[in-house]
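Follow-up to my post from last week.
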Amino acid sequence: MVNPPPPAIELSDLRKSYYQKPVLFGLDLTVAPGQIVGYIGPNGAGKTTTLRILGGLDRKFDGEARVLGIDVKADPLAVKRRIGYLPESADLYEVLTPAEFYHLVGSLHGMTESRITDRAGRFEDFLELSYGKTQRIDTFSKGMRQKVLLTSVLLHDPDLIFLDEPLNGLDANSVIRVEDLLRQLTERGKTIFYSSHIMDVVERISDRIILLNNGRIAANGTFEEINRQAHRGNLEDLFASLTGGGLQRETPRFNFSEDE
Amino acid sequence: MNRCFVWLTGVLAPLWRRLGADPHALQLIFDAKLKIGERTTQFMGQQQKRDKNYTWVMYLFLGAFGLLVILGYYLLDDKATAIGLIFSFVFIYLGFMLVTEMSENMFDLRDLTILLSRPISDTTFSLSPALHIACFAAKGAMLLLTPLGIALVLLAGPLAALLYAVLAVMLVIMTILLTLGLYLTLLKRVAAARFQQLLAYFQIIISCVFFIAYQLPNFLNLSGYSPGQLSLVGTWWGFAGPGLWLGGIWDVILEGGSSTVLSLLQSGLGVTGTILSVVYYLRQSEGYGERLLELQIGGSQGAPEPETRPQRVRSDWIVNPIERYLTRPGVERAGFRFTWAIMARDMRFKQQVYPGVVIIPLLVIIYVFREWLMDEEAVRGMGFHLILIILYFFLALLITPLVTTRTSTEHQAGWVLRSNPLADRRPLLYGQLIAVAGQFYLPVGCIGYLCLLIGYGPELLDDIVLSIAVVLLGAAVFQLNDSTLAFSREKKQGGYSGLGSILLVYLLASFAGLAHWALTYLPYGVTAVAVVAWGICWLTFRELRSGVVK
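User reply:
Got it. Predicted complex:
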């Protein structure tokens, strides 16, 4: 009898503080493999912190975090070998060419040069990223940089992909391409855990949505399941409703003529 | 102090108005820029810890130098030359500071969005960064020059002190306006798309020139003179720079009886130089805002590619053999390529490293060929200990770039190294070392060792072979001790963090040099130890290469 694969992500009472200030208040979460999970929440809710912990970049936390069955705190290196991590701020060594950047990332994963070149080329073709052979990243637009980052994250065929705002700077056509790519990845059994502020995309492509508010999970389930709690009709309104946004209050009006 | 400068800007309102600027707007912008300067961590283009202690240490250091300046004045019999040399020193110091650190303030593109959209004239717009920079430079100049000004009241009387103060102001004006004017000329003449790159190379070249300028006195054979007899003002040497021209004014006014026609000409140059620097700056600043705007467009991502020949990514004929024969595919090669590429292209890295690296071949030239060039004593007459110092000084060719390859302005991009699996950093560090050696040590070493062999003779061969082993060993030990990932540390954090490893390596090199000297007294001592040193070197490199990414 074959053992079922371990959950892609398992969090148990995950807590994190920055300089005595708590950011995450005991998160409990289990994500099954092969899903696209949208991780949403207002600014400062703790999304990026969670992703950093899951990516093995931050080991200073309390509670338990397991990724693909591996204890993140005990063996972050084993986690890093099997995941792809795209940070929110697309910081790059901009004087490099994309090929040089891919070589660096691919080599860190033990890939051969020919394989790196071949895979990167195919990803770039799919994402419609084209540039001169000797062109450096510092001449790229924001969207092009994001495509370089996405390619570098997917190069080594990771089982679990963490994406922090993956659609930053992409135009509408590119967003469609990336959405399509993410779906294809889940069809191959990959798990995608991503955070985004673009609610309609999250609503459209996520198998499951986790809403984080003030370091706590405010909602967790499919869109339909969450919508049953608030009956809002779309994720944007649902988000505002669950995080105490502007829709519940009347927006005050600014008095332009007060000092006239 | 800043309040005082802002007040002074207000007092000089008629001058600004005459120059075509709006005094009120100028004062407001200047005040805001000073506040920003006080609060930001980016301090005149450099990442700094902006605490008060740091500022006071800097002031104290400059003040102490100011006291040394008094000694310089006291030691020289020809006071005009003393003043000229002191001013030359300040001119070089300020010029160096302006060229290397202040371009970001001169071409602060934030000014475009914040200031250019407001109703202010072009002169106001161009004068505001110049004032900010002048304020910073004036503080440094005051600390260097004020102690002597006070001492002059006692040593030469109030008239001399007053003249000195006027000359000091002229010097500061000339230095700032000539340097910034040169920047503006570049901005005017160079295509926007190429400006940033050209500016960076300009800064590197000027930095190297300044470094060499400090070493130039070593070329002069001053053995026949006592320092007190040195006289430059009033001779043809007095035309060498603005500092000495101002010395000419001193000579004419205070030592009128003994002044020569050359002194008069030099003083004339001093006065006209100051006036012309103002005119030059104002001429160059015309259309400053528009050109700054072009710069933003030229440097933006959407800008069209300039029509130039395709940029070479790297010189394959140099890199390929080093890469193929000295690194293994995988992490070693990735470390090599990554470090090589960034070193070859990151202007900040070049600015930090190149001037320091230039000094080593210069030392070789100075110490090996000085006597020969002067046609006096044979090269062999030079002490062997000097040769040994040079041989071990080659270690700096590896350590200086290796230290700098750990920090970067793009340090945040280091996430890519941290988020990917890297079981052992040593292969990456090995690749980094080979890249540094290939780019700096190999070319300079080939020329330097050859020069030494030609200058000293083939009997130096075993000494060179031994020193190469020690230098490579030192670099490998450094890499094993400091495993910071390449280009992933913020510069302000990097100040002292690698100090332990640096000290260790240089200490070892010093002991090695001493031991080398002792070995020369033993028959075949150097040759025998060279074999052992190469053995240890090989083992250390094997250790560095032993890491395997699983």
